[in-house]
Prior knowledge:
This protein is α/β, with parallel strands linked by helices. It contains five helices and five strands. It is globular and about 35 Å long.
Amino acid sequence: xxxxxxxxxxxxxxxxxxxxxxxxxxxxxxxxxxxxxxxxxxxxxxxxxxxxxxxxxxxxxxxxxxxxxxxxxxxxxxxxxxxxxxxxxxxxxxxxxxxxxxxxxxxxxxxxxxxxxxxxxxxxxxxxxxxxxxxxxxxxxxxx
Length: 144
Ligand code: DQA
């Protein structure tokens, strides 16, 4: 069975209460349940993890690389400045596995610092601005 790992970066466990006008009112636990339900319907194995730690996210990216799993990744604020996470994403996609960068909001329509992504150059593709549907669109893409 195909394996997909969904990784979420800092502050995304606060979904539902964090800036609901930008990120919506759905909480993180519900997001994971929705993703798991869709994965079951699509016949793939899905594991979702969230961390505020750059080091932990890098370890999980390396684990995905070593197991050959595709990754759906919302690096949150690390998107904009973590070269270490960008490098881990590069290692992942250069291994031949896919990595889709996702964002709930459209960072390009927001503050200037959000317009830079150090992850996008290493990503297979980027989906942003569709709320939690950004994750579902990525899941569809990885299973099509
Ligand atoms: C985000 C956008 C980032 O700029 C921000 O730091 C986040 C969430 C998004 O999903 O829209 O934490 O990645």
